[in-house]
């Protein structure tokens, strides 16, 4: 398999340098990340490719044993490597060793994103970035049952041989350049846009809000092509600057190529009080190829909600779209 869009680092020296930087900056699991531990997406990719290089030389059995060690050379504070086969069986995880050997192909994050299916698909294309919600570690480790612990995370996945793949991830708060809210700039601006839209809707009423949201030259469409959309809790589109022909249509059954009902998941998130959600959506800037999108939604009242989103490429600075999975 060839690396995804040129992301293979060209020499072992680069990998060693990346590894040294990572070793020097990460905190222990459960503790706040040190201010100097911030990483770039490129450094995360380098860490995973370093692990793939190690697996190639050490062999699968030795590599998996090392990846399973919470004090191993690839467990560096909050940063660690996990491994799966392409059927979804977990092969290694230093902080969830009790799950090793179980099939997690259908595991979803708290909003219903099928993370393992998407990770396997991207790895099978040669590797690349993904994003999802995952519990922040505590002093007791990672608890996937803790609903309130899920926060945005960026991951990088990479194939190792023909039958397995590896990945790692860092929370948005650990990314270099994270702002005052602990998110990348594009994400913070998106959150602020949604909060401003919700406040406008409550102050001016739904008619004025729908008109302004649907106005392509309005105050809720910015120069970076970010915009708001509004739905009722039954999934009927109420306002959208670029899908005006669909306004008044229920999209509650819209299903992405991985089986997630996007609009229903977004609506359920808003109904629960709002927050982040990751979903797959065609990117018109990438010839409508599928791409992971980080969304943020808020309820306005008990009838409708609104949201916005940024594509993962806006966080990584590179193309993160991918082809449709084979049926």
How would you characterize the overall build of this protein?
- The protein is of the alpha+beta class and 327 residues long.
- It folds into 2 domains: 4-174, Beta-Lactamase, CATH 3.30.450; 185-316, PAS domain (Beta-Lactamase, 2-Layer Sandwich), CATH 3.30.450.
- It is 28% helix and 22% strand.
- It has helices spanning 12-25, 41-58, 60-67, 115-124, 185-204, 206-213, 262-271, 313-316; strands at 75-76, 79-80, 82-85, 90-92, 128-135, 150-160, 164-171, 229-232, 237-239, 275-283, 289-299, 304-311.
- The strands form 3 sheets. Strands 4-3-7-6-5 form a 5-stranded antiparallel β-sheet.
- A hairpin with a 3-residue loop joins strand 6 (150-160) and strand 7.
- Helix 1 crosses helix 2 and helix 2 (41-58) packs across helix 3 (60-67).
- The longest helix has 20 residues, at 185-204.
- The two termini are 20 Å apart.
- Mean pLDDT is 88; it is low at 1-36.
Which helices and strands, and how do they pair?
Elements: H1 12-25, H2 41-58, H3 60-67, E1 75-76, E2 79-80, E3 82-85, E4 90-92, H4 115-124, E5 128-135, E6 150-160, E7 164-171, H5 185-204, H6 206-213, E8 229-232, E9 237-239, H7 262-271, E10 275-283, E11 289-299, E12 304-311, H8 313-316
Antiparallel strand pairs: 1-2, 3-4, 3-7, 5-6, 6-7, 8-9, 8-12, 10-11, 11-12
Helix pairs in contact: 1-2, 2-3, 5-6
């Amino acid at each position: 398999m060839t690396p995804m869009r040129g992301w293979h680092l060209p020499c072992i020296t680069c990998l060693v340098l990346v590894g040294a930087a990572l070793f020097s900056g990460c905190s222990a699991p459960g503790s706040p990340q040190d201010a100097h531990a911030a990483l770039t997406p490129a450094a995360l990719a380098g860490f995973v490719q370093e692990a793939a290089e190690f697996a190639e030389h050490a062999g699968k059995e030795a590599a998996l044993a090392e990846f399973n060690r919470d004090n191993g050379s690839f467990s560096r504070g909050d940063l660690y490597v996990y491994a799966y086969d392409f059927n979804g069986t977990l092969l290694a995880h230093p902080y969830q060793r009790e799950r090793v050997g179980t099939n997690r192909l259908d595991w979803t994050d708290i909003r219903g994103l099928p993370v393992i299916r998407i990770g396997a698909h991207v790895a099978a294309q040669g590797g690349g970035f993904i994003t999802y919600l995952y519990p922040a570690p505590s002093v007791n480790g990672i608890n996937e049952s803790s609903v309130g612990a899920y926060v945005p995370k960026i991951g990088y996945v990479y194939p190792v041989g023909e039958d397995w793949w590896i990945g790692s991830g860092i929370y948005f708060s650990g990314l270099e350049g994270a702002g005052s809210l602990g998110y990348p700039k594009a994400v913070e601006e998106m959150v602020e846009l949604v909060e401003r839209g919700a406040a406008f809707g409550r102050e001016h009423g739904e008619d004025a809000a729908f008109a302004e949201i649907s106005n392509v030259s309005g105050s809720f469409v910015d120069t970076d092509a970010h915009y708001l959309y509004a739905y009722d809790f039954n999934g009927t589109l109420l306002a959208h600057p670029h899908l005006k022909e669909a306004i008044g249509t229920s999209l509650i059954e819209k299903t992405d190529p991985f089986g997630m009902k996007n609009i229903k998941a977004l609506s359920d998130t808003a109904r629960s009080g709002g927050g982040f959600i990751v979903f797959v959506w065609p990117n018109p800037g990438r010839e409508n190829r599928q791409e992971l999108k980080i969304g943020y939604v808020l309820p306005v009242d008990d009838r409708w909600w609104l949201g916005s989103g940024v594509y993962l490429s806006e966080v990584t600075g590179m193309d993160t779209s991918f082809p449709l999975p084979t049926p």
